[in-house]
Design a protein that fits this description.
alpha/beta, TIM Barrel, 8-stranded parallel barrel
């Protein structure tokens, strides 16, 4: 996809909200979605009860983030009102989901769950916060919306968007002042950088799908 072919604005997901008030503040700054991590091993992991509180506050703008087939979270997965994002999915979760892979382990589309509604592509070392060759995201199949993640921050997100032309961008460590702790000033700067990038390129059309809620 060339820059001239991308006329729709880029959606924004801020991942790793730790409580309902933080999640609402992020959305009030203009983000399109917040990620709620219950995947084991993450410094941003929240207890399922806290995840439910965030979902109650944010509705379908809250994206549940899982890894593999975490049996402890299966009840949460089935009842979650918004989109579900599963990293390295094993089998079909039985509901619509965003499938997430890092650029080094992306499997063929025929191996993805049949219920996949979007693809999230992360850095080869997911969670490292390191930038990577975002142009590789242009090689992903375009029958699903592509969400670009990995090493994004307010200073480089415009470069990433212009390189990969994703449906949405996803940031976590790039808007934190300490690992696992969001900085709302950086969140605001990130959102402003995305909006400025789209405006400079004349991207003003509504994206398709229109929002994250349609992925649920």
């Amino acid at each position: 996809m060339t820059a001239s072919e991308k006329s729709a604005r880029t959606l924004i997901k801020i991942c790793g909200a730790r409580n309902a008030s933080e999640a609402r503040a992020i959305l009030d700054l203009g983000a399109d979605a917040v990620g709620v991590v219950v995947a084991a091993g993450s410094p941003r992991r929240v207890h399922p009860s806290e995840a439910v509180a965030i979902a109650d506050a944010c509705g379908k703008q809250a994206v549940l983030v899982l890894r593999g087939s975490d049996q402890d979270c299966m009840d949460l997965l089935r009842s979650w009102p918004g989109p579900v994002q599963i990293h390295d999915p094993i089998g079909d979760p039985g509901r619509p989901c965003i499938v997430a892979f890092n650029a080094a382990t992306l499997s063929a589309p025929e191996a993805w769950p049949s219920s996949a509604t979007a693809l999230l592509l992360d850095a080869p070392q997911a969670g490292s916060g390191a930038a990577w060759d975002w142009t590789k995201a242009q090689n992903t199949p375009r029958h699903l919306p592509c969400i670009l993640a990995g090493g994004l921050n307010p200073a480089n997100v415009a470069t990433a968007i212009n390189a990969a032309h994703p449906w949405a961008v996803d940031v976590s460590s790039g808007v934190e002042h300490a690992r696992g702790t969001k900085d709302l000033g950086l969140v605001q700067a990130f959102i402003a950088a995305v909006r400025s990038c789209d405006a400079a390129a004349g991207r003003h059309d509504a994206p398709h799908p229109a929002d994250f809620a349609t992925l649920a």
